[in-house]
Amino acid sequence: MFCTNCGTYNKKEAKFCINCGEACNEPRRKEKFLRTVSAIPKQVRFLKALFIFSFHGSVTPKIIKFLYALSILLAALTASVFVMVGLHSPTGIGILAFLGAPLIFLSMVIFSRVLLETMVAIFHMATHATKAMGKSDPKDGIQWNIE
Q1: What pLDDT score was predicted for residue 144?
Q2: Of 2, 29, 53, 67, which is the most buried if we count CB atoms within 10 A?
Q3: Domain for residue 32, yes or no?
Q4: Is the pTM of this model over 0.85?
Q5: Direct distance between the N- and C-terminal alpha carbons of the chain, in angstroms, rounded to an integer
Q6: Residues 6+ away with beta carbon under 8 Å from 12
Q7: Nearest 5°: phi and psi at 113?
Q8: Mean model confidence pLDDT for the chain
Q9: Residues β-bridged to residue 2
Q10: Count of the separate structural domains present in the chain
């Protein structure tokens, strides 16, 4: 016999489903329990978190992707400015600008990536440090009497 609620196979003499615990002889329930959904959208919660002055929660890990995309855009704009300057400059400076634009783009992207990853690592260290501060009990059961 199959459960009318979850579809799990049960023995014929079973009164309750082994998977979901529902009675096997009752018909399936029509109503579905709705999950509670927060009334505040994520964008509003993010904006609210920006203007809280307590600094207990960090907003920076939530905007890292945006900051990285912004830094790539800024690097692309800088490289394109170098290309434009190269087009309106004498030949020697133009060649240097064309060769330098990709190098400047790559160096800016690498620098911003390293900087943002460092920020994320610092936030992770701070999170783990605050969790470790609450667990100051010795784990090995040894009491050290150092005077």
Answers
A1: 67
A2: 67
A3: no
A4: no
A5: 72
A6: 1
A7: -65, -45
A8: 78
A9: 9
A10: 1
State residue 113's pLDDT score.
94
CA proximity to 62, closest of 83, 76, 47: 47
> Is 116 a residue whose pLDDT tops 60?
yes
CB 107 within 8 A of CB 82: no
Nearest CA among 13, 34, 23 for reference residue 5: 23
Give the span between the Cα atoms of 102 and 82, in whole angstroms.
Answer: 9
In a domain, 26, yes or no: no
The residue type at 110: I
Q: What is the arithmetic mean of pLDDT over 79-107?
A: 92
- Whether pLDDT at 95 is above 80: yes
d(CA 75, CA 118): 19
- Give me the domain span that covers residue 75: 58-132
Contact 97, 82 (CB under 8 A): yes
Q: Is residue 121 scored above 80 in pLDDT?
A: yes
d(CA 64, CA 58): 11
